[in-house]
Design a protein that fits this description.
91 residues, three-stranded mixed β-sheet, 4 helices, 10% strand, elongated
Length: 91
């Protein structure tokens, strides 16, 4: 008689298989950029949501292009490369 896998174990296996399809980018190396940008934006009165700021800082640190429709928020960050694929425009 074959042993049945527990549903939770099968879901864990599915998750692990799914995760292998992506590279995980650590956020900790980007924290220096995050702190500098947060202070700069606060001084200018252009506060950005903490999660957006962390995403943008991580993209900057890793020299990645951030693909987003939310260009008006992310373009406040210095040295960020942004593309909005919904309008075919590049910032």
């Amino acid at each position: 008689m074959a042993l049945k896998k527990h549903p939770q174990r099968k879901e864990q296996e599915n998750l692990e298989t799914f995760q292998t399809m992506f590279d995980v980018i650590p956020i900790f190396p980007a924290l220096n950029i995050y702190v500098k940008e947060k202070a700069r934006l606060k001084t200018k009165g252009e506060i950005l949501d903490d999660f957006d700021l962390l995403i943008g800082s991580t993209a900057i640190f890793n020299n990645l292009t951030l693909v987003t429709r939310n260009v008006s928020d992310f373009d406040r960050l210095e040295e960020i490369d942004i593309e909005d694929w919904t309008t075919n425009s590049v910032s």
